[in-house]
Amino acid sequence: MDIPGGLGTITFEDVRRYGVIEVHVDHTQTPVLWITVVLFLSMLGSLLIPRRRMWVKAAEGRLELAGLARGEDPTLERAVEDLARRIGGDAVAGVGRRID
Predict the structure, then answer these.
(1) N or C terminus of the chain: which is more exposed, having fewer CB within 10 Å?
(2) pLDDT, tens digit, for every residue of 4-57?
(3) Rounded Cα gap, residues 48 and 40, in angstroms
(4) Do 38 and 47 touch, CB atoms closer than 8 A?
(5) What are the φ/ψ torsions at residue 80 (nearest 5 degrees)?
């Protein structure tokens, strides 16, 4: 093919074929997966496990037990009584009421 103005010629002789292979390795994907799984399981645990507080007080030679739940917990009284049974002795259990 001639270039206008007598500047020379252009010839098409060959095409070199080549391929591009891109390899991407992200070493942070596995730790991020495990962190996500742990966070998800801990969130489920915080939603499904009842939150309650238990107190043990030693007074006048006996133990007094008390429990407080965050929100409604129908099993709180049973949990305090179970703790009293495990401790044994002269433990007095109370839930949401004062014991004199």
Answers:
(1) C
(2) 888 889 888 888 888 889 999 999 999 999 999 999 999 999 888 878 888 888
(3) 12
(4) no
(5) -65, -40
Q: Which of 3, 20, 1, 21 is nearest to 11 (CA)?
A: 1
Of 43, 44, 55, nearest to 84 by C-alpha is 55
As given in the structure block, the two tokens for residue 78 are 């049973």
Sequential DSSP letters for the chain = -EETTTTEE-----------------TTHHHHHHHHHHHHHHHHHHHHSPPEEEEEEEETTEEEEEEEESS--TTHHHHHHHHHHHH-SS-EEEESS---
